[in-house]
Amino acid sequence: MTSTTLHRDAIEPTLFRQLLGCFPTGVAIITTRTADGQPAGLTCNSFSSVSLEPPLVLFSLRKASSLLGAFAEADAFAINILSERQDALSSRFASSKIADKFEGVAWRSGPLGMPVIEDCLASFECSVHARHEAGDHDVFIGEVKHMSGGPADQALVFYKGAYMMLAESLRTLVIQGRLGSADLDEAYRTLYGTLLRLACERAAEGEIDAIEAAVDGIERHQATESLDQRIESASRFFSAIAAAGHNEALTLMAQTMTTILRERMTHVIRMRPRPDLFPLRRKVVLCLRRRDADGAAAALDELITKLRTGGDAAAEPGGQ
């Protein structure tokens, strides 16, 4: 009898996060009380049911979260499931720049004294049943003690780094041809030019390595590869630039542009090999390593211009 040792490739964190995003999730705000009785809360999409008898639910919280201590010391918490009309609340409770998350927010104290946000699809007040360490997160399991329903709206859904209602709207615009190439070019130049300048100031070498790895992928995935592989490699190039810029607001905009890129490459444009563009992407990486912001932005601008003047009027900046 022979034994076989399975080789497992290292799990690359950025790709792991991206692939996890393929599973659509609801969005909830988890709330509790601090030791001095103040309301505290954060946005979460790790909420899940566990058991019906007894009624158990769970969520996970990063160990690096500033609220980990508050949840660890509390004996209860509340799950507030958001509707698609409450996307602003999701962004508010996810922001690290807003000190008082509850200012101007309609909420009440539930029977357990936990903050229950008004007009949510559903709210569950839970006593802490168990807490487990799990890698870089802690998992909190709660026993539901009280629950209430809200308006019959659609749920807010998070999918591939964007709210699904936004992704669906963008898909419609793309397929209907209502996003013109000139407008998109201007958006790419403005957004990613800014992100490249920020990356020259803020990016770690490992983040520039990730951009170069994405360029390698684009050059590997030529016409013989599947369309999905080519779309993935092109999208990863821009996602890596956004990550290197370290600006949450611009990263959110970049996720929107990535959604547009994917939809156009899938439904609208005809991709063909463009090895003449390879040196320009390499130039972007070289300028980043030299911390040459003007050079990196200029290389991107040249890449976009060459796509449009190279007889490929329907091409995308991520084109092969």
Write the SSE topology.
Elements: H1 13-20, E1 25-26, E2 28-33, E3 39-44, E4 48-51, E5 56-62, H2 68-73, E6 76-81, H3 87-94, E7 107-109, E8 115-117, E9 122-134, E10 137-149, E11 157-159, E12 162-163, H4 164-175, H5 181-202, H6 205-220, H7 227-245, H8 248-267, H9 278-289, H10 293-309
Antiparallel strand pairs: 1-11, 2-3, 2-6, 4-5, 5-10, 6-9, 7-8, 9-10, 11-12
Helix pairs in contact: 4-8, 5-7, 5-8, 5-10, 6-7, 6-9, 7-8, 9-10
Main pleated-sheet profile = 7 strands, antiparallel
Total number of strands: 12
Helix content: 40-55%
Mean pLDDT: 85
What is the CATH first-level class name of the largest domain? Mainly Alpha
Can you tell me the CATH architecture of the largest domain?
Up-down Bundle
Low-confidence stretches: 1-7
Overall 3D geometry?
elongated
What sequence of helices (H) and strands (E) makes up the elements? HEEEEEHEHEEEEEEHHHHHHH
Write a structural description.
There is one protein chain. The protein contains 10 helices and 12 strands. By secondary structure, it is α+β, with helices and mostly antiparallel strands. It folds into 2 domains: 137 residues, Pnp Oxidase, Chain A; 144 residues, GntR ligand-binding domain-like (Four Helix Bundle (Hemerythrin (Met), subunit A)).
Summarize, please.
The chain is of the alpha+beta class.
What structural keywords apply?
320 residues; alpha+beta; Four Helix Bundle (Hemerythrin (Met), subunit A); 12 strands; Pnp Oxidase, Chain A; 2 domains; three-stranded antiparallel sheet; 10 helices
